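Example 3.2
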Amino acid sequence: MNIRHYLIASATLLITNASFGQKSTLKGSLLGVAPSEKIYLFKYFGSELSKADSTKIADNQFEFKFKKALPYGFYRVGLSAQKSVALVLGKEAAPQINGDLAQPEKISFSNSPDNQLYLQYTEYNRTFGKNVAQLQQSANSLGGLQESEPARFQSEMVKLKTKFDSLANAQNDFYKKLNAENPTLFVGKLAGLFMTDAKTDSSNYFRKEDFTNDEFLRGDMLGSKCNIFLQKFVKQDMTAWQTAAKAIVAFAPAKSDGREVVYNTLVNLFMQIDQSFAVTLGADYVKEYPKSNYAKNLVARLPKPEPSVGEIAPNIKLKDRDGKEVELSSLRGKVVLLDFWASWCGPCRMENPNVVKAYDHYKDKGFTIFSVSLDDNRDRWLQAIEKDKLSWPNHVSDLKGWRSAGAALYQVHSIPATFLIDRDGRIIAKNLRGAALDNKLKSLLEK
């Protein structure tokens, strides 16, 4: 059971916005910077960072002089996006930052109530995160009791859940206090975005202003709110998450910056947990925002989708049992079953007798098999071929397990996985088993 639940992102919400403030400067003293290096100011669009300005540093001292008023909100300052710290700019005339880039938790600010409040916010959430991590560690240690002592396991988990609820309620009270005492400061607004009450549920967690107020769009806070929503209010299975993600997109006004930030957030999220849906969502993103470089750059990082029925089968070129490179395309002219399997895969081994039967029956009628093994042990691979009597010649593997180049090309994430390819090299069916495979081959080869 995951005690940590939904508050996973609240400690690192860093935002910029478009409520324009006054002309200003930013002075600082930062250790860990060589005299020849430049200091950069970074701005956000959703979770995306880009350079907004730069200045020289001498004797660890630097100063930005902004010719135009900055949008009021969160930025980052440092040597790179990775080596930088967050701060609030846009409303104060001359904030100052001091500290060491290598120790961001010790950064301090002067002449800046905005940033001093932000430090309180981050320190509270840093402590909150540590406490939640300790509860999660305790929950993980109880795993062995779930079967051996289920009653005790349940009792201990209830205790941990009570402690977590207490932490979460205290955090919510902290947000309410920040918001009530600082309604015009950015961190006060940030706290207001995440605070809840007894009436908060899936129907009212999001508000229209979450997507239309620029202050909530230029940073990762809207993305964090999407993440919290999925974990707190949505059933924990992938289909439910997909449905909820589509609903969040639909709730945001069409073609707005808010919807683009939602798209960007959700595509990044699903890249980690469901690449197929990330590809689908990414296609919708680019279609709605065809001129957006954010969309183009993000989608370019997505894996290519699994080849579809009707497409020409991508060519695979891997070494066979003798170390000779064999290409799938060399079998053009035959009906080919492209079979992804492994010696350690129980379902694959159980299906092999059906594959052998199909090969033996149709091998003289223009049918063959191209087997791609996801093994990482050569001996076990060869032993399985012999034991299961896989007598066709085309067995290939790069012995990289799930990192197989062939599996990546076909977006194979579970095995057995098969693609039936016609004489012209076009995919005509996927994942046929047993009688379904036999019937399809009969229709193709016994006319």
